[in-house]
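Complex record, two chains
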Amino acid sequence: MGFLDQFWQLTVDGLMSGSLYAVIALGYTLVYGVLQLINFAHSEVFMFGAFGGIFAARAVMGDGGDVPSGLASVGIVALGLGVGAICGATAAFCLERVAYRPLRKRNAPRLAYLISAIGASLFAVNLAGKMWERQNVTIETPFTNGEVFKLFGATVNTKTVVIFATAMAMLIMLDTLVARTRLGQSIRAVAQDRDTAVLMGVNVERVIVMTFVIGGLLAGAGGFLYAMTFSAAYNMGFIPGVKAFTAAVLGGIGNVRGAMLGGIVLGLVESYGGYLFDASYKDVIAFLVLVAILMIRPSGLLGEKLGRAA
Amino acid sequence: MTATTTATTPPAPPAGQPGPARGARATLAAALLSLNGLRRLGTYLLLGLVAAVATGPDGTADEPLGAVRDSILDPRIVVFLLLAVALWLVVAAAPLARPLVTTLIARVREPVVASGLPQHRYAPIVTNLVLLAIAILAPLFLSGAARQALVNDIGIYALLALGLNVVIGYAGLLDLGYIAFFAIGAYATAYFTTDKALPVHSPFLLNPFLVMPIALILAAIAGVILGGPTLRLRGDYLAIVTLGFGEIIHLIANNADNLTNGPRGAFGVPHLSINMLGLEYDWGNDPMPYYYVLLVIVVAVMIAFGRLERSRIGRSWAAIREDEIAAEATGVPTLKMKLLAFAIGASVSGFAGVLFASKQFFNPQSFSLQASFLVVTLVIFGGMGSRLGVVVGVAVLQGLAYYLRDPVPPTDRYIYFGAVVILMMIFRPQGLIPSRRRKREIQLSEQGVGGADSLGGARPEGAQA
């Protein structure tokens, strides 16, 4: 019944959250591409980015006062995104150094990586909880959140536009980076065949670090967008992390465009599903989607190889 | 300057040999002051700072850098920085001291090997009996609160860790939602034993002992349903699917008010009791009877899993870990065996849930994600694949957590657990008391021979076997 009336509104909401999932999912997919590992601590990279961005924006805006407008708004959002991205990249870099590199030097079995990433995640979450209290941290939206235009009767407001446009810009930038630059070429080379890449003169260590850093930049900026919409908290990474991972698997893990598509599809499915069923079980939907893909099409919508589709 | 630093380094070469010592000193100075050496110093100082923040005062969200600032201004920072410098010196001196250490170890080891100690054959049995005696007598010397912790934090978790050890240690898989099965066991107990604890209850009420097999089977079924579709694929997917499953069970426990009583939890689940054949006993509120029941169960499970490990099934698990393709080729039903390990782990968790529910009040908080991570930490710390290691690991780590509960608030505990997990993976992946086979597997696998887990797919560093 009401579903059809709400359809376009739900679509708009789904696209917004889906574009965020896509941004985070890229971190999982890139790391999976070069290391064949699920980076369990990626959600904490996202969390550090969110805190960094929020704190930076709050420091500039101050408490209370008028809602910034015009150039000031653009500046604050850009600052939050930038600081968030830098914090995320730093966290990802440290993570690679502490939890991955020592194991890689030793050629440890894969289980060891998963476990050390879990340890890093546990450490990071609780350290953030200790440093910044275990509660939600919010900021005022740094712009007037009015209606921008109507899409088939659904309201599209400023926040939605900002988030969707920023996420899309990041996705396009990443796609270009992977497809056209020299770094992207070496990432694809390492993903396809590491040994051959080494023989061709690719600096694998550097590629791995850069992969973590790029994933961290995206997740950090995504973290700021997420925290601007909802809030930041020490344990905020978990749910978006699982969802982004689902998105990555849905698109085909290791596949850059797949992760983007997977994020958008998951956002839509979740938005429709949350309306049709009960909103409090919205988080369960992503999980059911994950189990369903694993049963029906484990290689994802676009297949698994990083070298192939991107 | 370099002379004084060498003098303070403990493992520096002995002073009695002027010739080589001078050469060693020059090497050490070179190692310390090279670009790499200085970079390492920077890393250690940074780690020292992180450690200071992790153990330092709490911060607030209003002052993002407040916690870091307070930690730097705190006098304790000196200790951490000195530790970092000491670590730097020790690491730089370690290669120089290695020949010395090797000869020392050889000298200590030689007589033991040479005399061929006849009691060596019985040593494990003696050790086990001594440990068992300690376990039986220990609670007599403990206070009431410590006894409660002994049951709730050590006994129950030892059982949980033994079950998870089958999944991580024997099958080489990772289960991150392990506590969900524990929750299934606990809620099943509340459902079947009383009409007061939950809004729903079974049409017939049972003694907690009779619920044990039910909980076992329910948890195993949940494990098979969850593991079936997942284990067909790469094993690392299992980790994230179980993670999601754990969170869903937690979510349902918290939200389904008319089923689970929501966040208020389940009150009034009856204690364990026996009333048959003229024998009547109620376990009541005292932790001691529970402790001894748990001890019997833990020892029984240890023996049973020891037999399991050496059985055809256990050998299949070892074969899968070491080389899955070869195992498959020689007729090991790999999927079935992985699923079996997963289901056995789940059922032990469900079983532990019954004991937990009949021991005390519980609410969804008891089944949080962190509890799952805690069990993983305990297994890793003790030594995956090593039954004794796992139980001793639980006793050590949980015991420390209990005795350090005043200086270390419970919320900070997980910072340390996280650090323990990373450090174990970097420096001692085989754990505190390693299983010999598992240790060898990890070593060989690092040299590129065979594997040490059953996650499938390519190895991160390219398979060199």
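Note: Confidence is low (pLDDT under 50) at residues 1-17, 458-465 of chain B.
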